[in-house]
Amino acid sequence: MDLLPLDHPRLKENNFDLLRLLLAMAVCLVHAAELSGFAALQSLSGVLSAQVAVQAFFVVSGFLIVMSYERSSSLTSYTSKRLRRIYPAYFTVVILCALGLVLVSQRPLQEYFSLAWLKYLAANLSFLNFLQPSLPGVFESNRLAAVNGALWTLKIEVMFYAVVPILVYCLRRFRRLPVLLLIYCLSVAYAELMTIVAAHTGGGFYERLARQLPGQLSYFIAGAILFYYLPFFERRVGYFVAIAAGVLSVNFLFPLPLLQPFALATLVLFFGLFLYAGNFGKYGDFSYGVYILHFPLIQLLLNTGWFIERPWFFLLSAVSLTLVGAILMWNLVEKRFLLRSSHYVGATTQAETGTPVKQPASL
């Protein structure tokens, strides 16, 4: 089956920028409720799900990153695009936290800049934040001492980036659909096995293993399947959406682990590719900044102790600071590392000059 042309209507005009921003904001709101523990905000955790939002992020990545590799002229080109998109902002956040949070540390200066500080820097800069999630004396009076608990998903994302060239090689060498379905099923089986073992042993270790790449790969693969078979999906989109909605409804009462990832992917990509809502990438993509900045900003606000009696003012402050930080991160860091061929460079040109610039989906 041939790949979709770059001028395919669904790839030129889509809602991925808006979708990712909404997902990032959902994670921000849930973390604000969970980290604060404010009773007035607990309804947010009932209405929104950070877990589902992260899974939806993985679906979008599965679609766009596989497309990025298929459209890249070489492995070097693909690697360059991925590094430019994800690492500059990530590096900036880690360094800002490592240097700036000394101001709120409860430890003396010499104890802050210690071996633990170096371990934090090394672990987080290499996407291994689970090895050292906290800094000396920082946020110790908060409900959770972790500096940036949202970064665990970036490790999975980077591992998926590394897997994609191998995946595509297998898809080109063997029959595409059987390979994709096999990987999808193995991923679901792994996650279920770890969940069962965790339930019998009471070990959180196995729950964490279930959340890692083998267990999350089904969401990436579901996105990749819909990329490769988008024309088929388009022709039968009504059936796909109706069945997916039914599966997810039943999943609330009776877990359907084999079907849930693909059902979620169907609804996510239906929103991303259909019912075009406008060019939300015109002024940039702030979703990544929202995602990697919100956690430490929430922790900082809670650390002040100012918001104990003002939960809604706390939430407004957290959201406002996160959005401002994301806008600054985009303009000062992220877009400066993008290639001129980037979707966002073209979108910015269109916004500034009024000249239409046709671009494929965000890569």
Automatic annotation (TrEMBL):
Residues 15-329 form the Acyltransferase domain. GO terms for molecular function: acyltransferase activity, transferring groups other than amino-acyl groups. Keywords: Acyltransferase, Membrane, Transferase, Transmembrane, Transmembrane helix. One of its GO terms (cellular component) is membrane. It comes from the Bacteria. The chain crosses the membrane at residues 20-41, 48-67, 87-105, 112-131, 151-171, 178-201, 213-230, 237-256, 262-281, 288-306, 312-333. One of its GO terms (biological process) is polysaccharide biosynthetic process. This is Acyltransferase family protein.
